[in-house]
Amino acid sequence: MYINNVKFARSNQQQKGVLDLKKLSRVQEIDDYAGEIDYELVGFVDKLNRPTLSLRVCGTIHTLCQNCLQPMDVAIDNTSRITVFFSEEDLDAALFADSGSGVEDGVVAEEEFDIMQLVEDEIIMLLPYATKHETCVGMSYADKAENPFEVLKKII
Ligand SMILES: [Zn+2]
């Protein structure tokens, strides 16, 4: 889905939808993630009159515990603010400015800006890596399994 990101921001447009992680090829290249993620993109202008996009992504990611390899769910809910700049130079200057430019993230003005690409990039940044159950049954099992010699010593 493509938007003119400047017009979208200046006219306070909104766009929302749901993405299936199984259908995001770049996400699937990283790992076998599943789940549906809601996104909401809202356009506005910031205090400095710059076109800006607010992107919220939330949902539950189904992945595997890296310890016991059983399924586990990780909830994500994140909102980021993306400022639209009219040139690469302005974007770089704002992103790499030493003094706080107030810019969290930015993109360049485009008449055909790909929303799905933006949402997928955002999801990729939020993907859980090397996740483990908070109280993992597999772990305690592994601990016990590693200690037969300790047990033996006590018996002897
Ligand atoms: Zn586990």
TrEMBL record:
Family designation: Belongs to the DUF177 domain family.
Keywords: Ribosome biogenesis
GO BP term (any one): ribosome biogenesis
Leader sequence segment: none
The keyword Membrane is assigned to this record: no
Protein name: Large ribosomal RNA subunit accumulation protein YceD
Chain's role: Plays a role in synthesis, processing and/or stability of 23S rRNA.
Record keyword Lyase present: no
Domain of life, source organism: Bacteria
A single Gene Ontology CC term: cytosol
InterPro entries in UniProt: YceD (IPR003772), YceD_bac (IPR039255)
